[in-house]
Amino acid sequence: MSYLRVMVRPARSARAIYAGTTWHSPPEKIQTTPATRNFSMDSTVTSLWTSISQSTPVAYVQQSLITIHDFTGLPWWASIILSTVLMRSFVTLPLAIYQNKIVARLEKISLEMPDIVKELKLETAYAIKKFNWTEQEARITYNRSLKKQWDKLVIRENCHPAKTMIVLWGQIPLWVMMSVSFRNMVHMLPDPGSIEAQITFTELTLGGFGWIPNLTEVDHSLILPVAMGLINLAIIEMQNAARTRESSKLQRIFTNVFRGLSILMVPVAATVPSCLSLYWVTSSAYGLCQNLILMSPRVKRLVGVPQVPSELANPYQHVRQKFAQRGNALLSKVGLNSK
Question: Which region is the signal sequence (predicted)?
Answer without folding.
Answer: none
